[in-house]
Amino acid sequence: MLKINENYLRLQDSYLFSTIAKKVDEFKKKNPEKEIIKMGIGDVTRPIAPIVIEAMHKAVDEMGESQTFRGYGPEQGYLFLREKICEYDYKAQDIDISADEIFVSDGAKCDVANILDILGNENKVAITDPVYPVYLDTNVMIGTAGKYNKKSGKYENVIYLPINSENNFIPELPTENVDIIYLCLPNNPTGTVLNKIELKKWVDYAINNNALILFDSAYEKYISQKDIPHSIYEIEGAKKVAIEFRSFSKTAGFTGIRCAYTIVPKELMVQLNNNKVYLNNLWNRRMCTKFNGVSYITQKAAEAIYTNNGQKQIKENIDYYMDNAKIIRDALKKAGFITYGGINAPYIWLKTPKGFTSWEFFDKLLEETGVVGTPGAGFGPSGEGYFRLTAFNTKENTIKAMKRIEELV
Ligand code: PLP
Hints:
Bound molecules: pyridoxal-5'-phosphate
Structural class: alpha/beta
Strand order of the largest sheet: 2-10-9-8-7-3-6
Number of helices: 13
Low-confidence stretches: none
Helix content: 25-40%
Order of helices and strands: HEHHEHHEHEEEEHEEHEEEHHHEEHEEEH
Shape: globular
Distance between the termini: 58 Å
Oligomer: single chain
């Protein structure tokens, strides 16, 4: 008889954003005349930078000529892109990463999920709480999370590291041994960051406990404050204990084009019996077997951002979103809300008004203002009492949404 992966039956509800989409659809059906402003899901709205579009057009033309046509590409990504990543994203920050430590993919979401393929299902996993839901759900899917406890809202085998206003959104090191730690910095959903001293504690923990850090820096380009690490490899020893995930989605508006990359340092290894097993080799093997690589046209698009003009053009879009973040922070402060984040990340994390759970506040905001945010509880039990707004809408809509919230208050 056919068997299924029963771990999937332990997943809670539907994925957070599909629940929100369902609620918004119902609201639209009931109130067809009301204008909705989406500040919930973290999707971008600015068009792709002209230099990227130009590169894509050129790549399309190349595909139509026999001399420049390309068929299957390298599963790890074309060298022309990986070399630019080394130069612009690492060497320029004094970090030495070589092209064969870089794996280009179609998304950081896929990579943070697929990495579990080479790590197996016997690890003790720690996540911050609240957290980007993909880390948790993918561990539920492979069985490392264990049973769900309805009362606590937690999975039995997962170590939850609360981040909240009491600890200034700085997670404490686990008191028991863990094998895998997910760190997302700048953080989604809270928009907060760790400085080098705080991040070093995690690298040291991983070194001392033979643990692996899965470091998601999808929002690295949004860091505006000095002394905030952009890469975990700025911390000494991190290459021995960390895999870093980056994405062009929020950096260059590639949520529709799809491109990301993952760094698996060659030093990263586990000792198995008397053998050293290198994670770079395993991930390479996995990519070659299970992944077709990213299209030539997409990689040419990504390469275009690694020019002076390309960097300037993507920065203009990032600045646009961060101006929105400031508009949101200022307006919410004026309206009496307590907010966090929005300085090094396009996310503003706010405390829900007294007496409102995060889903109740979601409903109230949708019903009375048409503004859609994301309830903190959707990111984990410690997200209760908080709410996330994103800075990715247009400036006009952001201003309109803030006006409506001020009026509501
Ligand atoms: N990692 C984090 C923390 C995110 O917030 C997101 C998207 O919202 C992703 C990864 C997904 O990146 P990609 O679009 O490259 O799959």
